[in-house]
Amino acid sequence: MTTLMPPVGGLLINPIKNGTVIDHITSGEALNVLKIIGITGTTTESVSVATNVSSGKIGRKDIVKIENRELRKEEMDRIALIAPRVSINIIRDYKVYAKGGVERPKFLLGVVRCPNPGCITNAHEPVSSRFEVLPNGLHCMYCDWLITNDITGHMI
Ligand code: ZN
Questions:
Q1: Is 37 in a helix, a strand, or coil?
Q2: Which of 60, 58, 76, 68 is nearest to 22 (CA)?
Q3: Which residues of the chain, if any, have pLDDT below 50?
Q4: What's the gap in Å between 126 CA and the centre of ligand 1?
Protein backbone atom coordinates (compact mmCIF):
# COMPACT_ATOMS: atom_id res chain seq x y z
CA MET A 1 0.00 0.00 0.00
CA THR A 2 1.27 3.42 -0.91
CA THR A 3 0.66 6.48 1.18
CA LEU A 4 0.69 9.72 -0.71
CA MET A 5 2.30 12.55 1.17
CA PRO A 6 0.83 16.02 0.89
CA PRO A 7 2.94 18.28 -1.32
CA VAL A 8 5.59 20.31 0.45
CA GLY A 9 6.84 23.55 -1.05
CA GLY A 10 10.43 22.50 -1.32
CA LEU A 11 9.67 19.26 -3.13
CA LEU A 12 6.99 20.55 -5.41
CA ILE A 13 9.20 22.67 -7.63
CA ASN A 14 12.76 21.90 -8.59
CA PRO A 15 15.53 24.16 -7.32
CA ILE A 16 16.70 26.91 -9.64
CA LYS A 17 20.24 28.09 -10.28
CA ASN A 18 19.59 31.81 -10.54
CA GLY A 19 16.41 33.77 -10.13
CA THR A 20 13.67 34.55 -7.65
CA VAL A 21 11.40 32.44 -5.50
CA ILE A 22 8.29 34.23 -4.30
CA ASP A 23 6.91 32.21 -1.41
CA HIS A 24 3.87 32.58 0.86
CA ILE A 25 1.78 34.24 -1.82
CA THR A 26 -1.82 34.61 -0.66
CA SER A 27 -3.61 31.57 -2.08
CA GLY A 28 -5.18 32.39 -5.44
CA GLU A 29 -2.96 35.41 -6.16
CA ALA A 30 -0.15 33.66 -8.08
CA LEU A 31 -1.50 34.66 -11.48
CA ASN A 32 -1.85 38.27 -10.37
CA VAL A 33 1.76 38.17 -9.18
CA LEU A 34 2.80 36.93 -12.64
CA LYS A 35 0.81 39.75 -14.21
CA ILE A 36 2.56 42.31 -12.00
CA ILE A 37 6.01 41.12 -12.98
CA GLY A 38 5.02 41.03 -16.62
CA ILE A 39 5.09 37.28 -17.18
CA THR A 40 2.70 36.32 -19.95
CA GLY A 41 2.39 33.27 -22.14
CA THR A 42 4.73 34.86 -24.65
CA THR A 43 7.65 35.79 -22.39
CA THR A 44 10.73 33.59 -22.46
CA GLU A 45 11.45 33.27 -18.74
CA SER A 46 11.18 29.79 -17.27
CA VAL A 47 8.50 30.06 -14.60
CA SER A 48 7.10 27.51 -12.16
CA VAL A 49 3.87 28.08 -10.32
CA ALA A 50 2.43 26.05 -7.46
CA THR A 51 -0.99 26.90 -6.13
CA ASN A 52 -2.86 25.89 -2.99
CA VAL A 53 0.19 24.41 -1.30
CA SER A 54 -0.34 23.50 2.37
CA SER A 55 1.40 25.92 4.66
CA GLY A 56 1.25 25.97 8.42
CA LYS A 57 1.79 29.69 8.41
CA ILE A 58 -1.14 30.89 6.33
CA GLY A 59 -3.16 27.76 5.61
CA ARG A 60 -2.79 27.59 1.82
CA LYS A 61 -0.30 29.48 -0.26
CA ASP A 62 0.95 29.90 -3.80
CA ILE A 63 4.59 29.85 -4.86
CA VAL A 64 6.19 31.34 -7.98
CA LYS A 65 9.73 30.64 -9.20
CA ILE A 66 11.29 32.61 -12.00
CA GLU A 67 14.62 31.69 -13.49
CA ASN A 68 17.26 34.26 -14.37
CA ARG A 69 15.26 37.17 -13.06
CA GLU A 70 15.53 39.28 -9.91
CA LEU A 71 12.64 41.50 -8.92
CA ARG A 72 12.84 45.26 -8.91
CA LYS A 73 11.76 47.29 -5.88
CA GLU A 74 8.79 48.63 -7.83
CA GLU A 75 7.59 45.10 -8.55
CA MET A 76 7.94 44.12 -4.89
CA ASP A 77 5.88 47.15 -3.85
CA ARG A 78 3.11 46.09 -6.20
CA ILE A 79 3.19 42.51 -4.97
CA ALA A 80 2.94 43.79 -1.39
CA LEU A 81 -0.43 45.30 -2.25
CA ILE A 82 -2.03 41.96 -3.10
CA ALA A 83 0.08 39.51 -1.06
CA PRO A 84 1.55 41.33 1.94
CA ARG A 85 2.95 38.17 3.55
CA VAL A 86 5.17 37.00 0.72
CA SER A 87 8.80 36.22 1.27
CA ILE A 88 11.10 36.88 -1.64
CA ASN A 89 14.22 34.77 -2.05
CA ILE A 90 16.87 35.83 -4.51
CA ILE A 91 18.76 32.75 -5.67
CA ARG A 92 22.28 32.91 -7.01
CA ASP A 93 24.16 29.76 -7.91
CA TYR A 94 21.54 27.55 -6.16
CA LYS A 95 21.96 29.43 -2.88
CA VAL A 96 19.66 31.93 -1.21
CA TYR A 97 21.55 35.16 -1.76
CA ALA A 98 18.96 37.42 -0.12
CA LYS A 99 15.66 36.79 1.55
CA GLY A 100 13.06 39.12 2.92
CA GLY A 101 9.47 40.17 3.20
CA VAL A 102 7.82 43.04 1.42
CA GLU A 103 6.48 46.23 2.87
CA ARG A 104 3.24 47.84 1.78
CA PRO A 105 4.11 51.27 0.44
CA LYS A 106 2.27 54.17 2.11
CA PHE A 107 1.69 56.04 -1.13
CA LEU A 108 1.43 55.03 -4.79
CA LEU A 109 2.43 57.50 -7.45
CA GLY A 110 1.37 56.58 -10.99
CA VAL A 111 0.89 52.91 -10.08
CA VAL A 112 -2.89 52.49 -10.33
CA ARG A 113 -5.49 54.23 -12.46
CA CYS A 114 -8.36 55.96 -10.66
CA PRO A 115 -11.70 54.31 -11.62
CA ASN A 116 -13.54 57.64 -11.32
CA PRO A 117 -13.95 59.02 -14.88
CA GLY A 118 -14.35 62.52 -13.41
CA CYS A 119 -11.03 62.36 -11.54
CA ILE A 120 -8.47 64.94 -12.67
CA THR A 121 -5.97 62.12 -13.20
CA ASN A 122 -8.24 60.84 -16.02
CA ALA A 123 -8.76 64.24 -17.64
CA HIS A 124 -5.78 64.18 -20.02
CA GLU A 125 -4.01 66.51 -17.64
CA PRO A 126 -0.35 65.83 -16.93
CA VAL A 127 -1.27 64.64 -13.44
CA SER A 128 -0.05 61.26 -12.18
CA SER A 129 -2.43 59.27 -10.04
CA ARG A 130 -1.69 59.48 -6.34
CA PHE A 131 -3.14 56.95 -3.93
CA GLU A 132 -2.78 56.48 -0.22
CA VAL A 133 -2.58 52.83 0.90
CA LEU A 134 -5.11 52.30 3.68
CA PRO A 135 -5.96 49.07 5.52
CA ASN A 136 -9.28 48.85 3.66
CA GLY A 137 -8.13 49.83 0.19
CA LEU A 138 -6.44 52.45 -1.97
CA HIS A 139 -7.63 56.02 -1.52
CA CYS A 140 -7.36 58.50 -4.42
CA MET A 141 -5.87 61.67 -3.00
CA TYR A 142 -7.51 63.79 -5.71
CA CYS A 143 -11.15 62.62 -5.69
CA ASP A 144 -11.43 60.41 -2.56
CA TRP A 145 -12.37 57.28 -4.57
CA LEU A 146 -11.60 54.08 -2.67
CA ILE A 147 -10.45 50.98 -4.57
CA THR A 148 -11.26 47.96 -2.44
CA ASN A 149 -11.01 45.03 -4.87
CA ASP A 150 -9.24 43.87 -8.02
CA ILE A 151 -6.23 46.05 -7.26
CA THR A 152 -4.19 44.29 -9.95
CA GLY A 153 -6.84 45.17 -12.53
CA HIS A 154 -6.37 48.86 -11.78
CA MET A 155 -2.58 48.84 -12.09
CA ILE A 156 -1.13 50.87 -14.93
ZN1 ZN B 1 -9.42 59.84 -8.36
A1: coil
A2: 76
A3: 1-2, 5-10
A4: 14
What's the gap in Å between 79 CA and the centre of ligand 1?
22
Instruction: Judge contact between 43 and 111, C-beta under 8 A.
Output: no
Q: Report the CATH fold assignment for 14-101.
A: Alpha-Beta Plaits (3.30.70)
Residue 85: exposure state from Cβ atoms within 10 A (0-12, 13-18, ≥19): middle
129 class by beta-carbon count within 10 Å (0-12 exposed, 13-18 middle, 19+ buried)? buried
Distance 142 CA to ligand 1 centre (A): 5
Which pTM value belongs to this model? Answer: 0.82
Q: How far is the CA of 60 from the centre of ligand 1 (A)?
A: 34
Say whether domain 107-154 belongs to CATH 3.40.1000.70: no
Q: What is the pLDDT of residue 126?
A: 85
